[in-house]
Amino acid sequence: MYKVKVFVTLKESVVDPQGSAATKALQNTEFPEVQDVRVGKYIELSFEKSNKDIEEAVHDICRNLLVNTVVEDYRFDIEEVGAE
């Protein structure tokens, strides 16, 4: 079995209103040293072993379902794990 960890973030050129709100809130409380916050998504996928190329499958899943590639970037890590 494989565990895939997908990290989705807004592209640098895209305004992040949720991140801006978090930055202001942190700066107005106990964390004035925080200069910037960017908010993203974390997604875990589990794959059974197969003859398919997992990396290619994850790219297809991200591009077609999980990620809006116009405004978001993604990266992922694949880890082989024992059956549970």
UniProtKB/TrEMBL annotation:
Pathway field: Purine metabolism; IMP biosynthesis via de novo pathway; 5-amino-1-(5-phospho-D-ribosyl)imidazole from N(2)-formyl-N(1)-(5-phospho-D-ribosyl)glycinamide: step 1/2
Catalysed conversion reaction: N(2)-formyl-N(1)-(5-phospho-beta-D-ribosyl)glycinamide + L-glutamine + ATP + H2O = 2-formamido-N(1)-(5-O-phospho-beta-D-ribosyl)acetamidine + L-glutamate + ADP + phosphate + H(+)
Gene3D superfamilies hit by this protein: Phosphoribosylformylglycinamidine synthase subunit PurS
Gene Ontology CC entries for this record: cytoplasm
Keywords: ATP-binding, Cytoplasm, Ligase, Nucleotide-binding, Purine biosynthesis
EC number: 6.3.5.3
GO MF assignments: ATP binding; phosphoribosylformylglycinamidine synthase activity
The keyword Ligase is annotated on this UniProt entry: yes
Enzyme class: ligase
GO BP: 'de novo' IMP biosynthetic process
The UniProt record lists the keyword Lyase: no
Cellular localization per UniProt: Cytoplasm
Function: Part of the phosphoribosylformylglycinamidine synthase complex involved in the purines biosynthetic pathway. Catalyzes the ATP-dependent conversion of formylglycinamide ribonucleotide (FGAR) and glutamine to yield formylglycinamidine ribonucleotide (FGAM) and glutamate. The FGAM synthase complex is composed of three subunits. PurQ produces an ammonia molecule by converting glutamine to glutamate. PurL transfers the ammonia molecule to FGAR to form FGAM in an ATP-dependent manner.
Membership in a protein family: Belongs to the PurS family.
Assembly and oligomerization: Part of the FGAM synthase complex composed of 1 PurL, 1 PurQ and 2 PurS subunits.
Protein name (Swiss-Prot/TrEMBL): Phosphoribosylformylglycinamidine synthase subunit PurS
Gene: yexA
